[in-house]
Amino acid sequence: MMSISPQVYDVIVIGSGVAGLRVALSLTDYRVLLVTKTQLGAGSSQWAQGGIAAAMGSGDSPELHAYDTLAVSGDIANADAVSVLTRLGPDCMRWLMALGVAFDHDQGNLCLGREAAHSCPRILHAQGDATGAELIRALTLSVRQSIRVEVAEACEVEELVVHAGRVAGVMARQGGERRLYRAPAVVLATGGIGQLYRYTTNPPEATADGLALAARAGAHLADIEFVQFHPTALATGSDPLPLLTEALRGAGAILVNELNDRFMLAEHKAAELAPRDVVARAVWHQLQAGHTAFLDARDTIGARFPDHFPTVFAYCRSQGLDPRLDRLPIAPAAHYHMGGVAVDLVGRTSVSGLWACGEVACTGVHGANRLASNSLLEGLVFAERVGQDLRCFLRSQRTSVPSGLGLADMSQRSWPEGEDDRVIRQIRDIMWTDAGLVRTASGLADAIGQLHELEMTDAVRSQRGKNMLTVAQLIAMAALARKESRGAHFRVDYPEATGTWAHGSVWTLKALEAYQMT
């Protein structure tokens, strides 16, 4: 059944992690619809343990933070975007504290931790390892209190409505009913893609929806081959895998195998504090060689573990492990997508009327590899910039949204129905095996072929499955095209970085369709 929303909004925001919530709070003078497919605040943001990076300490500076960010990026980060990120970081922290976010303090001073590839302590935490949950608590409370922000929970956006070359609304499903919502501006803040992989630290919501919506609307995607795998997921066999935060290694925890060999000493001068891509591949190689890899915090954190890392400690205890006494088994898992919808420094995409921010967007700040604890910061900083740009746009825009927008076409559309658990398991297995941490041309070509075959069999019955299949094919195609290794993208057949590929990449759905025709 189709329903027409009786209201036209100024802005529709899709997604309610830190980026979506921050955009909404930047627009409280306007009529905003905040759409989230589960509950308000659900998603990867509230799971974030490690913290949020900003140059708040003595001896630190935005320039030093920018240097560290660029140093791990594989030489393809956007320096202008990095400058924006690190320069605005401290003000962002002050805004959060004014909002009521309770960062950890010691005798009145901010507690600043250090994580991999940071040259000094600059990581703010809340409740030790519950930073994301504290941010979401404060942000959702503020959104709930705003009289101009309408929240639509359990509402899944199925398509961006494009009229006369610009996005002008969304088609969504809520409670079994389809609804057409109209607005001159739509913001994607839908999060990441971790659920494309068999092993991930991401929650069930991370199914690549925003990338699929943008691609089908004709938007450019950037750097989508770069998927970050976290080196220290707790290898319990659960889905998703629990994260053992980077802050554990920042506090001195080491990585060993069952022989008690501290293998990172031979891999990188920074050992356990090497960039994530280096550590993740080292753990992967240990597992491929038949070893078991562990995180060992017994001698370095020891009795302090329950107080400093209560979330991790509670989960370990639920699995019969005590990190004060036991080594913790680890494995790499899909964690973060450096690529996304291509945007400029204020979040505008290549399609008029469409903005993006947070993990779904590619601002270029991460390049080929993300610096630890920069993701929450990026989501918040660039969400505020999206809000600023939208305020300017809404003050100046003279384009009205047609009242009959797309109804005839939408009412005749065949929409996916049902569940796709079996097909989704196949997608995740294919991506993990052939488009995961270590890649080859033959494996990537096989992945593209298998995914295309799934698409051709009409086996996909759900919107979730359709989105995942579309984005999985795009990522595999981009990874096949990049004939080098850089950052999180590692090709066994091209193990070195090359000058030819010392730049980002741009992809469209039309490029995938052209490839499939060859």
TrEMBL record:
Its EC number is 1.4.3.16. It is found in: Cytoplasm. Keywords: FAD, Flavoprotein, Oxidoreductase, Pyridine nucleotide biosynthesis. Its main location: cytoplasm. One of its GO terms (cellular component) is cytoplasm. Residues 10-376 form the FAD-dependent oxidoreductase 2 FAD-binding domain. It comes from the Bacteria. It catalyses: L-aspartate + O2 = iminosuccinate + H2O2. Residues 425-510 form the Fumarate reductase/succinate dehydrogenase flavoprotein-like C-terminal domain. InterPro entries: FAD-dep_OxRdtase_2_FAD-bd, FAD/NAD-bd_sf, Fum_R/Succ_DH_flav-like_C_sf, Fum_Rdtase/Succ_DH_flav-like_C, NadB, Succ_DH/fumarate_Rdtase_cat_sf. Pathway: Cofactor biosynthesis; NAD(+) biosynthesis; iminoaspartate from L-aspartate (oxidase route): step 1/1. SUPFAM superfamilies: FAD/NAD(P)-binding domain, Succinate dehydrogenase/fumarate reductase flavoprotein C-terminal domain, Succinate dehydrogenase/fumarate reductase flavoprotein, catalytic domain. GO terms for molecular function: L-aspartate oxidase activity. Its cofactor is FAD. It holds the Pfam family Succ_DH_flav_C. GO terms for biological process: 'de novo' NAD+ biosynthetic process from L-aspartate. PANTHER family: L-ASPARTATE OXIDASE, L-ASPARTATE OXIDASE, CHLOROPLASTIC. Catalyzes the oxidation of L-aspartate to iminoaspartate. Belongs to the FAD-dependent oxidoreductase 2 family. NadB subfamily. This is L-aspartate oxidase. It comes from Entotheonella factor.
